[in-house]
Amino acid sequence: MMIVNESEVLEFRTLIARRLGLWFDDHRREFLAGTLRERVSARRCGSAANYFQELGGGAWPEEWAMLAVALTVTETYFLRGAEHFRALIETALPECQRSGRGDRPLRLLSAGCASGEEPFSLAIALRERGAWIAHSVQIVGVDANREMLAKARLGRFSAWSLRETPPAIRDRYFRPTGADFLLDEEIRGMVSFLERNLAASNDDLWPPASLDVVFCRNMLMYFTPEAAEALIARIERALVPGGFLFLGHAETLRGLSTGFQLRRSHGAFFYQVGEPSRAGAGEPVSRAEPSALGWSAPELAPPGASWVDEIGRSAEKIEVLSAAARRRSEHETMVAGAAAGVSGFDRALDLHRQDRFAEALAHLQATSAEAARDADFQVLQAVLLVNCGRTDEAEARCRPLLSRLDAAAHYVVALCREHAGDLAAAFEHAETAAYLDPQFAMPRFLLGRLSKRQGRTRETLGYFEEALALLVKEDPTRLLLFGGGFTRETLVQACRAEIQRLGGGS
Ligand SMILES: C[S@@+](CC[C@H](N)C(=O)[O-])C[C@H]1O[C@@H](n2cnc3c(N)ncnc32)[C@H](O)[C@@H]1O
Predict the structure, then answer these.
(1) pLDDT digits over 351-380, tens only?
(2) What spacing in Å lies between the alpha carbon of 69 and ligand 1's midpoint?
(3) How many angstroms separate the CA atoms of 489 and 437, rounded?
(4) Would you say residue 280 has pLDDT above 50?
(5) C-alpha angle with apex 141: 173 to 210, nearest 5 degrees?
(6) Which of 218, 219, 229, 427 to mutate to test the pocket of ligand 1 (most atoms within 8 A of CB)?
(7) Structural domain boundaries, residue 364
(8) Is residue 281 part of a domain?
(9) How many CB atoms lie under 10 A from the CB of residue 105?
(10) Which residues partner with 188 through β-bridges?
(11) Do both 31 and 120 map to the same domain?
């Protein structure tokens, strides 16, 4: 097998970030190395150096298209984030209608549309609203992954793609075909698809003031901050004054643009460019960042009590406290040693270890403003706030860190969303945390718990198996911070019990 060295992997990463805007952190180096080996041998280049020479030249569109297929995450499904579609139809579009478009059609763009479920959901939502709009609307789906676009154009989807689609909508717009579902031809005719790299300037895609609505969900989180900022600037220019931008649950414009107003309606948060419309029907924004996106699917009744259910119930204070008592004796020596001389952060961590959360918080508040800007510091503060039951504040503390691709911040936000009953967002943040840091055990554990609540047996088993494998080697400080007051042994036992219950791990 061909060998690629460390510096070649880093060069590959830089080329990808520059060209496709995608960022791969250090935990994903192995994946990048594998892709590099595969591409060098597929192209019979003989060495990574030869491959880079061609690739870096900029004129190898076929190879960049192959890389886009190999490197992108394409998870999507119909009516993902249903509240976004409700807010679009009932708040954003009526405002667009009132804003004097004249005769021109309403224009919507789905940036990073993957296999088409998002733009087709837009078409279905519009169709549901009434034929008055369907004949005068243009919807375009854009993606760099040509395999996904081919799938979109086929219009054939698995039951998994329709997992959040109400039966009435499924029956109205899909025809069963074997194990799959074929999308209604009229809906397919409402959407056109373009293969484009959205990290490039694509001037023809973004004429000034040409679009009414852009959905750009669950793509920015894979981008470098520079690529994300540049794309948002293009979207901002291309939207008509008062036009709307919808981002994914785990994404924010913070640090990327100040040109938008945050809007809220129907439990959804979204952005509006330029002057807020006086005719606005949405609620005024009461907070700086999204927080209350609702879970649209009916939640399944929780299965019978188990270790994992116990751990999921934050009110199980007795178990938490007894675990804390065990930990206290384990760490007595360290705690005793935590005296004057240790940093504010370490002292707060020790107080956290003793479940003295309020004191730890007060201790952090007294530390210097410079230290307080540190991401680890802010995450510790957020964890302490969660433990004090102040999840809104914890979430607010973490939100600015999300665009910096901070796995811990995404995990804490996932916990806060779970606490708020917003399981869809909890799931997305936990998935993002797991993606950003593949060695991080607790997001897998949370994904297992959330999947279990939804009755998704196969996924539940998979997540607990992954969590188990990671828990045994998880860093002790990270377990202390994010383990919810439970020891490694308790969490490992919980995973094993779930795996056994689901018939895995023979
Ligand atoms: C996770 S999917 C999101 C799909 C959909 N927006 C949703 O929220 O369900 C992300 C999509 O972004 C696309 N993508 C990533 N980088 C891109 C780039 N530089 N240009 C165009 N599309 C890109 C991927 O191919 C993938 O289909």
Answers:
(1) 887 777 888 888 887 776 766 777 888 889
(2) 10
(3) 22
(4) no
(5) 120
(6) 219
(7) 307-501
(8) no
(9) 13
(10) none
(11) no
